[in-house]
Amino acid sequence: MVQTGERLASTASERYLLVYMITVLVIVTSLVIIFFIVFQRRKNKLLLDQIEKQKAFEEEIAQAQTETQEQTLKNIGWELHDNVGQLLSFASMQLSILKMQVTDDVKEKFKDTSEALSNSLREVRALSKTLNNDVILNIGFEKSVTNELDRLKKMKFTSAELEIKGDKVDFKNRKHEIIIFRILQEFLSNSVKYSEAKNIGITLNYKPENLTIIATDDGKGFDINKIEQGSGLINMKSRAALINATLDLKSKPNEGVKLVINYPFS
Predict the structure, then answer these.
(1) Ordered DSSP codes for 106-171
(2) Is residue 81 within 8 Å of residue 124, measured between CB atoms?
């Protein structure tokens, strides 16, 4: 009886010890898991904070660069309108005075020069308007795009057309009009300088939630992989990021260029 009691007591002690060890193991494991979860959360929070700070810093830099560029363009616009425009106006006036003092045969020789001066003056005035934010906001986004296309059409393109789809939705932030217009200007400028295109077109597709803009040219195109990090594309993408818009540029050699911008209204 005594041995049986001792065995039962020993068995009970072993059970208690086993339960104790299991309990301790569970507690330690739980603490390790909790510590790991807390550590991961703090790590993720620090990473997210760092990413947010970096994003905010990059946005501030991009905003500062954009504002500097806009002020530079505005100053150039003023210079073109006030100084270059006045010089061309003066030259045109002087030429008109000279034409009045010569014979009809000589007047005919002034014709091409006079037309060139008049065209140059119109081009300078039109260009100066597209560089001035106040003018763009005054006449509106669609009219500004139309004016830019008309200017380019007179300069070198066979056709330069704007197509509008859907019911117009006003921009909640009018500064976004300027940013999108500058992106399109960058695209059109590249078409003039590099594409050798004959035709360009821009489509504005208004939807309740967003505006989809498609700009195309039928030029020689390029290998997108070789131009991906070009300053022009980086500039367009940084501007698009400022207004939470997405931008996609597609091109292949001999297949022209296509730019797609999706701008959310909300």
Answers:
(1) HHHHHHHHHHHHHHHHHHHHHHHHHT-HHHHHHH-HHHHHHHHHHHHHHHT-SEEEEEEES-----
(2) yes
The model's pTM: 0.62
CB neighbour list of residue 51: distance below 8 Å, 6 or more residues apart: none
Structure token pair of residue 54: 């970096």
For the ranges 1-10, 77-86, 225-234, 243-252, the maximum mean pLDDT occurs at 243-252
Determine phi and psi for 245, rounding to 5 degrees: -100, 155
Q: Which residue has the tokens 């904070």?
A: 49
The whole-number average pLDDT for the span 243-258 is 91
The amino acid occupying position 65 is: Q
Q: How confident is the model at residue 258 (pLDDT cuts 50, 70, 90)?
A: very high
